[in-house]
Records
---
Amino acid sequence: MKLIAKLFAVLSVLFAAQITSAQSHYPNRPVKILVGFTPGTAPDLAARILADRFTDVFGTPFVVENVPGAGSNIATDRVAKAPADGYTLLMGGNASLVINPGLYDTLPFDPLRDFAPISQVFIAANVLAVPPELPVSSVAELVALARAEPGKLSYGHAGVGTSQHLGAELFKSMAHIDIAAVPYRGTTAFIPDLVANRISMSFANIVNVMPLARQGKLRALAITSIRRSALAPDLPTMAESGFPGFEAVPWFGLLAPAGTPAEVLDQLHGQTVAALTMPEVRSKFDELGLEPVGDTPAEFTAIIRKETPEWAKVIKQAGIKLGH
């Protein structure tokens, strides 16, 4: 009987250990990736590409949930307040993480305190474009024209606080020019006016600009990323065009709530980087005009820390405010 009792005790310990192991195995239930934009947008599509890959690798569903609104602040806040267990993730962009802190008097979350960055996923370069009728063929000529006719030239943008808006304000500040802002409801709304020469210029997404530029309907002058793009390798950067350090691109990355276990973050980081190196994933990103990144959590954190005060300065100089 004593032997049976001991055997039962050993089996009980082993069984308990197996249960604990099963409970601690990540993931053992569906994982949500929240996106603060509508379906079909770049962050939504990128999140779905990663979710499909994660589902295959982990054998557990990764589901994208769209929570648009308030410049993606709603989705960002929801993840900030979610349990730190790795089952609620954010495909978060520079709008909510580094730009909105300068636009809003208060935010319900702290980008640096409330999140555990996993990896930056992609950047989507903008292009400074002008109508063919505008008598300029370079950024330098555009600056010269703007200085010669202060206040007469205008730029279109996709909404207050967007990369197109702040990129143009950064350009104004660095070039010391006076150009008027014309807001629209998204990029597709201002492109027709740009083609028709009703506005003088815009920083628009490379995917929207380059097909029209190749057709002669727009003239592309420079790209807003630090490096040239494979989608337009002959197009110089703004830095190469006389504005060192100029960078104004939408970017997105994967984040978890602060306090998420390190082993969970390590798994997610490893699989994110692995996915972004896969030829089929890179091909899908190329089609969308997205440049995959795949950096470390420390590098991603450093980007958030660096860019927040930089954009706050641009926003303050331009006198932009969205209130609460």
Note: The first strand starts at residue 31 and ends at 35.
---
Amino acid sequence: MKCRHCQAELRLPFLDLGHAPPSNAYLDAAALRAPEVWFPLRLLACESCWLVQTEDHAGREALFTDDYAYFSSYSVSWLEHSRRYVEAMIGRFGLDGNSMVCEVAANDGYLLQYVQQAGVPCYGVEPTASTASAARDKGIDIVQRFFGVDLARELAASGRGADLIAANNVLAHVPDINDFVSGFAALLKPQGVATFEFPHLLRMVQESQFDTAYHEHYSYLSLTAVAHVFRANGLEVFDVEALPTHGGSLRVYAQRRDTGARERQHAVRDVLQQERAAGMETAAFYQGFQAQAERVKNGLLSFLLDMRREGRRVAAYGAAAKGNTLLNFAGIRPDLLPYVVDRNPAKQGRFLPGSHIPIVGEERLSADRPEYIVVLPWNLRSEVHAQLEYARRGWGARLATAVPELRVDPEHEG
């Protein structure tokens, strides 16, 4: 296999999780009786541009389907993050009623609703019918297509060039990263700005976050790799921020290479130096991650086996894609985790891919009163703790997370 960006031969293994179904391919009851498609889930690092990427097995149309079940608005903390982003961008770049904001991968309108409320013209690009419909219900204009340079040129030619393009947690999701990034250069106005948020590969390795690997994530990104990709496709990074979201993310600010006039901020140099000091431009950095993943897997599996042996009641919370990666790598099935609770009605009544663990509503917790609740979206641990305070106080439920290592809350007092 060749690198998606620079076409160098890929020889450096990073992570091998065996085979798994797509992590967002939730199943209905009828699908449980049919064959399920699994793909190899292996990641390699390019020793030329340092882009980490999955092997090619599944196309985007097979992963981002019309009934795509991930809706951003079900996370209260993510909504607040998005509201603050919109406020900051309007202030920093002077956006007003004469500006145009575009969000690529607009999902259910979780972010553009705040742009709209501020009186700034906006529209979104979103290929999945389920989330696009939810955004339109909020009154947001949605172009329902996959984004790339051809669509960007169409939009720019029709007068929809953007002063700001937001791209949150989508840069990792595109198989043709060069075409995707070139689209931003084509759609931006001469002094426009594009921002990209994505989980930072450095944090993924440092904190054993192997469960963020799944087929929908074609790329795993450092600023080092992103700067290479952007420069080759008409963009230049001029600023970067570290964010706490998704276990540690970067927000990268980019402008057109041909017309952008903003000075490069010191933060760009600082993050690049941090990555270099960590060894991200050496093969040694990428070796040993497999052992970290296996340690996390074994910790969770041992915990669940101990709970079953002791006759303890255990449930899971949050039908997250990262949870599916972990459960399938560990071979966990309903005998060890009988159900997972999720607040998203689009997931309730369905089953996790691979493990076939049923997804239920929150009322099941109150009825069943499990002694332990495994929180699968560990990045939302604080938010979930607040949501499950009734379980912790009501019957002493203890919350557990597996990443970066098994952690079980002490018994609740009071």
Note: The mean pLDDT is 94.
